[in-house]
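Researcher: Here's my situation. A collaborator sent me these components and asked whether they could plausibly form a single complex. I don't have experimental data yet, so a predicted model of the whole assembly would be a useful starting point for our discussion.
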Amino acid sequence: MHVLGISCFYHDSAACILRDGEIIAAAQEERFTRIKHDSDFPANSVRYCLAEAGIADSKLDAVVFYDKPILKFHRILETHFSAAPAGLRLFMNAVPVWLREKLWIEPEIRSALEQCGAQAPEIIHFAEHHESHAASAFYPSPFEDAAVVTIDGVGEWATATLGVGEGNHLSILEQVSFPHSLGLLYSAFTYFTGFKVNSAEYKLMGLAPYGEGRYTDLIKENLIDIKEDGSFRLDMDYFGYLDDLVMTSGKFEQLFGRPPRKPESPITRQEMDIAKSIQEVTEEVVLKIAQHARQKTGKQNLCLAGGVALNCVANGRILRAGIFEDLWIQPAAGDAGGALGAALSTWYNVLGNPRKTDGRHDQMQGSYLGPEFSRDQIKEYLDAQGCGYSELTDSDWAPTLAKLIADENVIGLVQGRMEFGPRALGNRSIIGDPRSTKMQSVMNQKIKFREDFRPFAPSCLEERVADYFDLDRASPYMLLVAPVREDLRTPAEGDEGELEIHEWTNRARSELPAITHVDYSARVQSVNAESNPRFYDLLRAFDDLTGCAVLINTSFNVRGEPIVCTPEDAYRCFMRTEMDYLVLGPFLLAKGEQPGGNSVQSHPGENSPD
Amino acid sequence: MTGLQPGRPEAAEVIWRWREPPKKNAEPSASKARIKGTIQGGVGLGVAAAIYLLWSQTIGTVVFCISTTILLSALASPLGLYRIIEGVFVSLGNHTGRALTWLTLVPLFYLFFLPFGLLFRRGRRDRMKRFFEPDEQSYWEPHKAFSAADHERQF
């Protein structure tokens, strides 16, 4: 039996297909259309999923959409009842789109599926938004039973939920309702500090360690009322999203004594302090919710999803607080993962199929659920383009790449199936030597073309994680932040607070400077031979050569672009940046051997801010 | 982790079609534009005749002139003058659509949402709950239990 899950029409559209409950394929549409956060119907993703399942011309057994459009429309109407006479601009912006498109999602899905060559069943299912998130967190997890927490901007009405999963049954017990939203609170600060909402929240998280929590009390006294059980309300006088197209109001600006920062303008200490403060508030709420979840459900394990679950600093706090014995976070925690959750909820919760767990292994297959390109497909493309390349044998592959990395080359790596979710986990990654002091600034400025304050994440052999980080378990999806071990750290010089941000960033903080953030933290990916044998071999070869079992791993894209999908995307990105080598499956391409040589083929300025 | 499955090359083929030339915007075709303009002009002339005979000679003459201009421009200059005229009509259509949207939705907003919204708020039925409740222990609200039938509804 095949179940197709779809999420779309808001942001990060995606599709996923299950066969008899097993995840066969899942992919985000942005990877195919090359439009970041693409929200259109995921026609390419659906075509790909059907082809991966080998059912391109067959009738689907079930199709499920990841939220309930009429409930969402109800929330929008209630918002206007509440805001009128304010809110005309928002009303004129939202209502015509709803009347024209979003109220007709079922016929839209049927027609789009027909164009994809699929036959939809008689009934199309509609899961609740947070049910989809909760299902994406619990069902693929290794736990037989767990507390389930979802936190994001908003679904239909819920903005945060607490539920419990037992066997094949998942139920949501409680919710916090719109407009009171931790995700939207974080997004409001993202907007206020000059970053893009629904896109750059992770930058605010990355900026936080540079600041001090000078505004934490101000936020708690004025913007949010937090109860002991983690539930909360916002003072809506400070926010603009109920009655306008902006996130914050004039009162918010008065509170902080300044207007929002203009995008791309210099980042000041105030932005760093604001980032730190909102991060502290977020962590406090998330920790209290986790404590409440433990008390309410009595479960020993916690599953997390929703956009806020991508806040890996908060996730690390939950883990270190020891509230739960173990924690599992859906790697596609945002709306893309809703496609997966909706399909799983239908399979287990609606159809009542049994669920098996072993307490150790999850069902995500490392989140490598996207397309994979064969040796022959890649070779044919490279030959047709006249690219210079050499083919590495299986035994040469890892040692050759390890040597290149140790020589401070930056390598674009495409191998195996593409990752599902926002993180590159070694199959669509740019990798480098974390011991190099210049690597962070080289990779930020010449390859990724992004802000230089942003740190890189480390990938580490799973069995060596404890040698580098204060982390006592695997972190396969790069969703936990852990401190770099104390004995590897370089003591701070004490004048960091007076430095410009780029000078501060360029100070070495540990023996692995490129992956150590200013607060000595790192967003760790642990790699084992089971989940990604090739990447594991590479880490092992690098360890054998250098004694270092860690690599820099950043997503293979440039600013404003989705992560690469095909060898063609990767080659184009490679030629537009100052990457030294590109690996496409078994093929190694050196920049100097390509048509056009070492020249960077187009200006990075073409990439819009992300 | 369970069952790391390799991807199928046939599936990759579905979404990577590098052999196909990149899709460009369809080149405008003179013959298609000519046919389209002829149909538009012909229909317009028919409408002009009907208006002239059944309603108003003045308006019928205006519609006749416009339709003739469309017809002749499509036949004589399908990719030049006809495209300009067509562009003007498309733009006019868009602006008319926008104006109609405002004309219908603005009254709806002020005549329906404003009074009922005020009424609801007077009766403390504001779903937004824009107030803190210091005496309450919690802001958590109970969530309705799922049922399989719920999945078949959009609400």
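Model: Some features of this prediction you could bring to your collaborator: Chain A touches chain B through 96 residues (CB under 8 Å). The domain at 375-606 of chain A is CATH 3.90.870.20 (DHBP synthase).
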